[in-house]
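Reopening: Winged helix-turn-helix domain-containing protein still failing for me.
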Amino acid sequence: MALTVPSVGVFSFLRPQHPRDHMNYHIVVGAHVRHKDHPDYGNGRIVHIHQNGKSLAVEFENRTGLAHDCAGHTKKNFGRWSKASSLELINPFKAGDTVQMAALDQRAYPGFYYDSDYAEKNGSVLSVDDSYAIVSVAGIPGSQFVPTADLTLVKVDPVEAVKKATPKVKTIVFQSGSQCGRLVKHLLAGNSITPLVARQLFGVERLAARILEIKKAGHKVTSTIKTDVNGKVYAEYALRKAGRIW
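Support: Ran it again with your exact input. Result attached.
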C-alpha cells in the first residue's frame, strides 16, 4: 500500500465520514507498519514523525539490532528511523482480538469522530478492513468504526482467559460432621480415599454413593481403579489437582 507523510495542517480541512476516505494515503503517529526490507523486525508502530517530514521513528516488536532509541522515542534496540517508502501499512488485528481505543484528544485522525463513550475503552474486534476495525464494547449498544492507528492490542493471559470463560460452580457445603462433610475435609487435605479407609475412618459403607453426592455438590473428583493382593478390584478417589473447586 503506497504511503506518504501528511503535510502540516493536512487534517485541519479533512472531515472523513469513513476511515477509508483518506487513511490509505497517509502515515500518522500510531499507524501499524511492517518494514519492507526487514520483515524479521515483525510488526511496528510509528511513534514519531521527525520535523524534517521524512524520517519516521518506528518501534518494532522484535529487536532491530540498532543500539539506539530514535532520540528517545522508542525502546532501545527496538526502534529504527525509516522512510515512508520503506514501510508497508498493515492491519495487525483480527476478529476476536481485545483492543484499547485511544483518547479523543490523541486520535490519529482528528477529523474522524467516534463516540466519546468508546474513548480509552477496551473492546472486542468484530471485523477488520485495510485501515480500520469495527469494535464493540461491553455495556455500550451497537459497534463503532475505529481507525487502526487508534487501536492498541491488549494482550490477554491465556490462563486468565480460560478462567474467565469457565463458569464458576457454586459448591454445596455439607453439614458439619456428616459423612460427606468428613470425606470432603479428608480429600481437601490432599488425601485419597478407598472403600476400606472410608469404612475404617468414617464408618462409610457405600463410598461410591457418597462420592457421587460430593461430585454433585461441585467438587472435581478423580477415580483410579486398583487391585488388592487378593485380586479384588476397588476404586481410589481423590480431588482433581488442576482446576480444583473448593
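The longest helix spans residues 179-188. If you still see a failure, please send the error message rather than a screenshot.
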